[in-house]
Amino acid sequence: MSTLIIAEAGVNHNGDMELAKKLIVAAAAAGADLVKFQTFKASNLVSASAPKAEYQKKTTASSESQLEMIQKLELSREDHAVLIEECRAHGIGFFSTAFDFQSFDLLMELGCLEQIKIPSGELTNLPLLRYMSRVGKPLMLSTGMANLGEIEAAIEAVVEAGTPRHLITVLHCTTEYPTPMEDVNLRAMVSMKQAFGVNTGYSDHTPGIEIPIAAVALGATVIEKHFTLDRNLPGPDHKASLEPHELKAMVDGIRNIERALGDGVKRPSVSELKNKPIARKSLVAIRPIRAGDTFSSDNMGAKRPGTGLSPMRWDEVIGRTAIKDFAVDELITL
């Protein structure tokens, strides 16, 4: 099964449509399946008194509120239409996360709901969970900041509202930008799969590319990763994002892991069969053996190549009588 790789442009367009288009081109060039933005109405998402997160304070102007910061990053209906067309032109799927009812309706009207993503911050927003899951589309639940009980409650809510359980993918996530390695707890993804019997994936905020690649090896069916054109650009998420060459390296690494995982059946691979007779051993004479001599550990041993009798037949041969002469290193035959 191919991992769904989501290149998270998020709000790294900084409200600039030309920058947003360049992000789409970079995601397509890297080989991602989808490029994801964020759809929200700032006034529906953030109250005027809402503080910024610590990482946002470090990467944006201290004088502006969270609401002011978010307002600059809104995408209009027209912006969405332009980005959808740009994705179509570059052969990559458009995807976006809705953060409120109005934004979800907009994505529905634009035909952008082949898949639905519920962000970590909305995992406990019961009215929105019900509203977004009623359409019965494949749905991703991001689980940053959540415990198992909260995740279970969210899963039950979306199932009751109309999303079949088999269409749910729970994304392990740590809501810190960037995420310290000691806080990743990647095994929690495996625990959620065992606990809830749903598909699991990983939404990554760590520096580098090794953790999402490891997640695929552990069974992730979806990988989401923030990216930017330049980590030095102003804005809240650029510092915790990959640059285009890193995004491509991550995609390539994931695809290599997929090929390497195989089907789980242990058998000789096609590429190694040619080496089998070279690397394995056969029973050979380790000193001259005359017809009528008895095969023993004194005159018989195992050496390469493996084109004769397998040493696994040692007990079958030992003690038998040689029917012909054997020179040193000659393959033993019965």
UniProtKB/TrEMBL annotation:
The keyword Heme belongs to this UniProt entry's keyword annotation: no
Keywords carried by this UniProt record: Transferase
Domain spans labelled AFP-like: 282-334
GO MF terms, alphabetically ordered: N-acetylneuraminate synthase activity
EC number: 2.5.1.56
Broad EC category: transferase
Official protein name in the record: N-acetylneuraminate synthase
Species in which this protein is naturally found: Undibacterium curvum
